[in-house]
Amino acid sequence: MGWEGVRDEVLRRIRARDWAPGEVIPGEEALAVEFGVARATVNRALRDLAEAGLLERRRKAGTRVALLPVRKATLEISIIRQEVEARGEVYGHRVLESRMEGVPLAVALRMGVAAGARMMFLETLHLAGGRPFAHEVRWLNIAVLPGGVVPDFGEVSANEWLVQNVAYATGDIEFSAESARPEEAAALGIRAGDPVFVTERATWTAEAPITFVRLLHGPGYRLRTMV
Amino acid sequence: MGWEGVRDEVLRRIRARDWAPGEVIPGEEALAVEFGVARATVNRALRDLAEAGLLERRRKAGTRVALLPVRKATLEISIIRQEVEARGEVYGHRVLESRMEGVPLAVALRMGVAAGARMMFLETLHLAGGRPFAHEVRWLNIAVLPGGVVPDFGEVSANEWLVQNVAYATGDIEFSAESARPEEAAALGIRAGDPVFVTERATWTAEAPITFVRLLHGPGYRLRTMV
DNA sequence: TACCATTTGTGCGTATGTATG
DNA sequence: CCATACATACGCACAAATGGT
């Protein structure tokens, strides 16, 4: 039995309530003996379940079944082109606006910079099969661009360019539902006031903020994930 | 240097583009020699980065820097009571409806059962500080309830009861933006047509479907995550 | 196709580090 | 302060996948 076998058997016991929520389960050494495997193998299995939120492990206190297991759903954030192509449609995008601009206060707060800091402002419409798919508004800190050169975002979208060139950064994401503002509705080809799915994302490296994006998807868009 | 040290150094090299996207990095053995650690330690570090989507590993082919790193955001799905209390507000809930009912087609499809299958229908309003926080509509397969006994969902919410009693199951989640229907708007104390943030979640065990929930949050609600 | 060489994946036994009851 | 249980590490071995001959 490998570590996945151990994990599955432990999971079965948790689900079968052989080990009740809150209860301390046998130690690694005891389980290793019972299953006839090395302690490291048990460790690997239990660590996996702890990462999934089903077990809570503390030195000396031992391992216990989580009382209120926090379900962790993993969202895979792909670039928009991939998302569109995964639907079997042809991707395209149009840059609607591109200029230098001072960031508004709300954006400055999210990016951790002073309000009015000058950044590149980009407004882009993403298309699926020629029809509007998502509306993007982005502030971009050109100071962090490699070589200080601003790429041609008419060629490759800023979304994709950043993933390939300034990626491997950290960030936070917020999802919400809003009413489409008139300009947004016009860009997306929907009615003002229609509900839009909003994704707002701030990205930064250890040194500096990189970009803040506000992405709007029209009615019918669904963000899916598996648990 | 421990495995986290190895991971951080590898991450630094990726960000610094010492190793470019798509490029094969040195093998585990070589890195182990370079860092002066055991191969298992390098393995642990690289496995971690691969899980994060920054590396792609294949036997024989080696380890390469991901060309298009898929950002994996982890959502921690907590029970609504915790979410409300985390905001420093008092949680409460009211059961608006509770009856046996055949499931509609859309729900049947999501749950993988025949349309019209009889399940328990529950409509609940979750309160934060006495004010509507979320509106919940749920179909529940009472066949899977331990002992076949239906708990008193006036006491503990179905949400919380299920997490504690039928938890450790799998499922899928969908998020979307919709317009509040008149009944929903009335329950939430908002205007019909206002945008609502919709969470739909189907849960099942290996044997049978457990429950399908449709959860509505009114304007202002934001789902946050860190990358 | 068949086989081989390479690289990652996993396992074992042991030892030491570290948080903590 | 100590005993305990998890966390990590080492070195070795073999398995499994797979790119290339």
TrEMBL record, chains A, B:
CDD domains for the chain: WHTH_GntR (cd07377)
Entry-linked InterPro entries: Bact_HTH_transcr_reg (IPR050679), Chorismate_lyase_/UTRA_dom_sf (IPR028978), Tscrpt_reg_HTH_GntR (IPR000524), UTRA (IPR011663), WH-like_DNA-bd_sf (IPR036388), WH_DNA-bd_sf (IPR036390)
Keyword Transcription regulation among UniProt keywords: yes
Keywords on record: DNA-binding, Transcription, Transcription regulation
Pfam families per the UniProt record, alphabetical: GntR, UTRA
HTH gntR-type domain sequence ranges: 1-68
The organism's place on the tree of life at top rank: Bacteria
Full protein name: GntR family transcriptional regulator
Gene3D superfamilies (alphabetical): Chorismate lyase-like, Winged helix-like DNA-binding domain superfamily/Winged helix DNA-binding domain
Signal peptide bounds: none
UniProt lineage: Bacteria, Pseudomonadati, Pseudomonadota, Alphaproteobacteria, Rhodobacterales
